[in-house]
Amino acid sequence: MATSLLQQLRSLVVVDVDCMDPDVAKRHFTPQEQFEDMTSNQALVLAEAIKPENVDLVKEAIAYVQGKGLDQDPDNFKLDVLDVITVLLGKRVLPYITGSLHAQTSPSTAYDTERTIAHAKKLVALFGEHGIPKERVCIKIPSTPESILACQYLQKIGIQTLATTLFSLPQALAASQAGCKYVAPYFNELRVHFEPSLWKEYADPAADHPMSQVILSVVAAFREIKSSTKVLPASIVTPAEVVALASFQPDHITISGVVLDQLAALPPVAEINPTPCTTDITPFLARDYTANGAQLLREAIAADVETQRKLTDALALFDSCEKKALEFLDTVL
């Protein structure tokens, strides 16, 4: 019998930790209740990197890159340090997960297939240099046409990928066709985490939230086509949203430290019944969104004003976080 809402949710869906603070993961980890994956992004890396208590980790990353003796310009040196910080932050959480550490490619490469592939390979290699095999690494990659093609290539060479900044069924189907291990549809657009006043509360998020039917359509479509790609909703603000998402029957849900703490303090709710998908998914299923350079995906995003807006804004926010992290490194170098 579950004694908390978090425990109840863990009996229904795989719970991942959307945080790079090992204390958060440790707090909600027991031999009986474990996280599978740790998800991350440029915002989460920045949040940890600037903490005074993590100064030694940052210095370790700097020394590691310096020790390679590469003849680099300052900008590339800092990018390398930031990648090593990402790896070291993930490594601290590894004891509290059973699956993969996630690391996100740079938003600056989101519309460049080759550069996205190169960054993904670099991250996987850095994890390997720190004793973490590629089987326990998943690279988060934005759901642009160019980057979905990068996922397709990376999966073929044995690198696990997750399609992130995902707001539509065509993006999800493209990711499935590319062979991604996961898709991470955002329940809330990213900006609500930076400007909380933009977040809107719904009395019944499962029924009323604008992303509910999108995520339900992804779950239904993947079930219909027997996709091996797993659905991992992200960008959650409240426990009520987690309960709503659990009713959609996804494979995983990734949850921030704040919301994990809230869920652990709340009692179980009445039975969480499945929410039905009322969207007609049939017209989408026969389309090959990755063919001809992902042309159909490009057209679908261009025709969907909200997806285009949310995707563009998320990439801009992640880019801002990456730039702030690089500026922070200027203060410690």
UniProtKB/TrEMBL annotation:
BP GO annotations: carbohydrate metabolic process; pentose-phosphate shunt, non-oxidative branch
InterPro entries assigned to the protein according to its UniProt record, in alphabetical order: Aldolase_TIM, TAL/FSA
One Pfam family this sequence matches: TAL_FSA
Protein's UniProt keywords contain Cell inner membrane: no
This protein's record includes keyword rRNA processing: no
Entry keywords, A to Z: Schiff base
Top-level taxon in the UniProt lineage: Eukaryota
SUPFAM superfamilies: Aldolase
Gene Ontology MF terms in the entry: transaldolase activity
Protein name: Transaldolase
Organism: Leucocoprinus birnbaumii
